[in-house]
Amino acid sequence: MKINQSIKNFALVFITLDLCLVIYALVFNTPIWLLNTQVAFISSLFITIASFLSYRKNIQGRLSKLDLSKKQNGEDRDKIDEIDDPYDLYTEYEEIPESELTTQKIKEIITDEKSKVKKNSFKNTIFSATGFLSIYRVLGYVILVFGFFALNNNKLFHPIAFIVGLGIVPIGVLFSKLLDKR
Length: 182
Description:
The chain is mainly alpha-helical. The chain has six helices and no strands. 75% of the residues lie in helices and 0% in strands. The longest helix is centred in the N-terminal third of the chain and has 35 residues, at 31-65.
């Protein structure tokens, strides 16, 4: 199995940043500082990877169920439109002349559009529930909270070091994306 180059870059960035953090903690700070940064880093990395995997699985599942062959609103849409806008949210509609717009007609249009938004937002929430309720993601948050309380209850918690450890993941993602653009 060949590993994608972007995954290699992603892993290399995180290993390098964590190694720099470990060296900095050992040289300039205490082992308690190192422990705080590593607990925060490992748990936030686990949460990020679990989120990525669960949302990827969610998207792949939705794409496998998507029927691009059906026509929406009786119009022929090209494949690019179907991919970019599968729910036909950005289709241009005919403008209604102002002379035909009555107060009742405006209220009817607004009510119709609100019902579409509510229906789609509820539908999207249900479909994306597997992404934010992934067992791995929940486990990552449990590890983060457990690590925080374990450090705090043993009087080992150092807030600055913990925040630095949490900040490594977003910084690593930013660096890995910069490497991908080259």
